[in-house]
C-alpha cells in the first residue's frame, strides 16, 4: 500500500518544526517526493495538502514548492497535479517520471530540482564550507566556492581549497586566559573558528557544523549581538558570559564553569560573508589586538574567489553536484 497523505503530513511537520533558525527567511521550503506507486489513501489527499499548506504558511509565512518523482508507468496524474499546483517565490513545482531503465540515473534526476532555483540571485555570492580533514594529508581545510551561471542557469561550481591554519592563524593565536576570538558565517550563523569548537583529528571525522548559539548560549548574545552580526553590522556590548575550564586529570578530571564580565567587539570582514568577534575579559582589557592581518588574509582569499569567478564564467566552471532523498522527505532549500 502507498499512503501519500502520511508522507506529506510528515514532511510538512518537519518544515514547521525546523523553522526557528536565524536567517530562516532566506531558506526556501521544498519537499522532494519519490514514489513507485499510485496512492491507496482512503482520505482526500488534496484536502490534506491544502490544510498542510495553509498551516505552514501560518506558522512560517512561507509557501512550499513540491518536486515529485514517479517511478514506473503508473498513472501519476494526481501526483503531477499536486506538484504543479505549488509555487513559492517564483519557483513552480514540477513532476518528473522516471522509467525503470533510468534507475541508474536516479541520483542525477532526483537532484535536478536545484536547476529551478538558478534564477535566484541572492545565493549567487561565494560560500564557505564547514572545516573538514583533507585525505591527502594537508590537515584541516575549508573550501570557498561560487556557483557559475550561464543565461541564468547554474552550469557548475568553481572553488578553491584553503588550509584551515592559513585562514585562522591570526584569530586562533589571539586570546588571554579568559579572552578569545571567534569567526562565523553570516549566511548561516555557523561557526568557522571558536576555541570551544571540536577539532578534527583525521579524514574519518565528519565535518563539524555548529551554529554559534551552541557555543555562545547567553540570551543577550542571541537576542542582540548575534542579530547585529548577522545583519553585517559592527558594535560592542558588555555582558556576563560563561567560560569552561578543565580541571584535574584522568579519573579526577572535570569542568569548572566561570562567569566572566566581558566585552564583545564584532565587525564584518570586508568583501566576505564572515564576521569576526573579539571577546575581552574586563581584567584583560589591556590586551592589544591587531586584526589588520586577519582582514588582509581574508581579503586575499576573496581575491582568489573573484579570479575563480572570472575563469569559471569564461570556461564553464567546475562540475556541480547534487544529492538525493527519500519519498515524502521535507527540508529547507539553500
Features of this protein?
334 residues; 4-stranded mixed sheet; 15 strands; 30% strand; elongated; disordered C terminus; vWFA_dom_sf; voltage-gated calcium channel activity
Order of helices and strands: HEHEHEEEHEEEEHEEHEEEHE
The helix count comes to: 7
Strand order of the largest sheet: 11-10-14-13-12
Please report the total strand number as a whole number. Answer: 15
Which CATH top level class of the largest domain fits?
Answer: Alpha Beta
Give the helix proportion (percent range): 25-40%
Q: Kindly identify the CATH topology of the largest domain.
A: Beta-Lactamase
CATH superfamily of the largest domain: PAS domain
How many angstroms does the end-to-end distance come to? 33 Å
Averaged pLDDT: 75
Strand percentage lies at 25-35%
Uncertain runs with pLDDT below 50, 5 residues or more?
286-295, 312-334
Tell me which CATH architecture of the largest domain applies here.
2-Layer Sandwich
Largest sheet: 5 strands, antiparallel
How many whole angstroms does the radius of gyration measure? 23 Å
Kindly give the count of domains: 2
Structural class: alpha+beta
Pfam families: MCP-like_PDC_1, VWA
InterPro entries: Ca_channel_alpha-2/delta, VWF_A, vWFA_dom_sf
GO molecular function: voltage-gated calcium channel activity
GO cellular component, one term: voltage-gated calcium channel complex
Describe this structure in words.
The protein has 334 residues and is of the alpha+beta class. 27% of the residues lie in helices and 30% in strands. It contains seven helices and 15 strands. A five-stranded antiparallel beta sheet has the order 11-10-14-13-12. Strands 5-2-1-15 form a four-stranded mixed beta sheet. Strands 6, 7, 8 and 9 form a four-stranded antiparallel beta sheet that branches. Helix 5 packs antiparallel against helix 7. It is elongated and about 70 Å long. One of its GO terms (molecular function) is voltage-gated calcium channel activity. One of its GO terms (cellular component) is voltage-gated calcium channel complex. It holds the Pfam family MCP-like_PDC_1.
Amino acid at each position: 500500500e502507498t499512503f501519500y497523505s502520511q508522507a506529506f503530513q510528515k514532511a510538512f511537520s518537519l518544515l514547521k518544526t525546523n523553522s526557528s533558525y536565524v536567517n530562516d527567511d532566506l531558506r526556501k521550503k521544498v519537499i522532494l517526493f519519490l514514489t513507485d506507486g499510485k496512492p491507496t489513501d482512503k482520505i482526500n489527499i488534496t484536502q490534506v495538502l491544502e490544510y498542510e499548506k495553509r498551516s505552514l504558511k501560518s506558522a512560517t509565512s512561507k509557501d512550499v514548492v513540491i518536486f515529485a518523482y514517479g517511478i514506473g508507468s503508473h498513472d501519476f496524474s494526481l501526483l503531477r497535479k499536486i506538484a504543479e499546483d505549488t509555487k513559492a517565490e517564483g519557483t513552480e513545482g514540477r513532476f518528473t517520471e522516471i522509467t525503470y531503465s533510468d534507475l541508474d540515473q536516479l541520483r542525477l534526476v532526483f537532484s535536478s530540482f536545484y536547476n529551478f532555483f538558478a534564477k535566484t540571485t541572492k545565493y549567487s555570492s561565494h560560500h564557505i564550507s564547514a572545516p573538514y580533514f583533507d585525505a591527502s594529508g594537508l590537515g584541516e581545510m575549508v573550501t570557498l566556492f561560487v556557483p557559475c551561471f550561464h543565461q541564468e542557469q547554474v552550469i557548475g561550481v568553481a572553488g578553491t581549497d584553503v588550509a584551515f591554519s592559513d585562514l585562522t592563524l591570526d584569530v586562533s593565536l589571539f586570546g588571554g586566559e579568559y579572552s578569545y576570538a571567534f569567526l562565523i558565517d553570516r549566511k548561516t550563523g555557523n561557526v568557522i573558528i571558536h576555541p570551544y569548537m571540536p577539532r578534527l583529528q583525521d579524514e574519518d571525522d565528519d565535518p563539524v557544523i555548529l551554529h554559534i548559539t551552541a557555543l555562545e548560549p547567553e540570551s543577550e548574545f542571541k537576542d542582540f549581538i548575534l542579530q547585529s552580526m548577522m545583519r553585517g553590522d559592527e558594535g560592542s556590548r558588555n555582558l556576563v558570559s560563561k567560560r569552561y575550564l578543565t580541571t584535574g586529570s584522568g579519573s579526577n578530571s572535570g569542568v569548572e564553569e566561570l562567569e566572566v564580565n566581558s566585552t564583545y567587539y564584532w565587525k564584518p570582514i570586508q568583501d566576505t560573508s564572515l564576521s569576526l568577534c573579539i571577546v575581552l575579559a574586563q581584567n584583560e582589557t589591556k590586551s592589544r589586538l591587531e586584526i589588520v592581518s586577519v582582514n588582509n588574509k581574508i581579503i586575499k582569499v576573496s581575491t582568489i574567489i573573484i579570479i575563480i569567478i572570472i575563469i569559471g564564467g569564461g570556461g564553464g566552471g567546475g562540475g556541480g553536484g547534487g544529492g538525493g532523498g527519500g519519498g515524502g522527505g521535507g527540508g529547507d532549500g539553500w
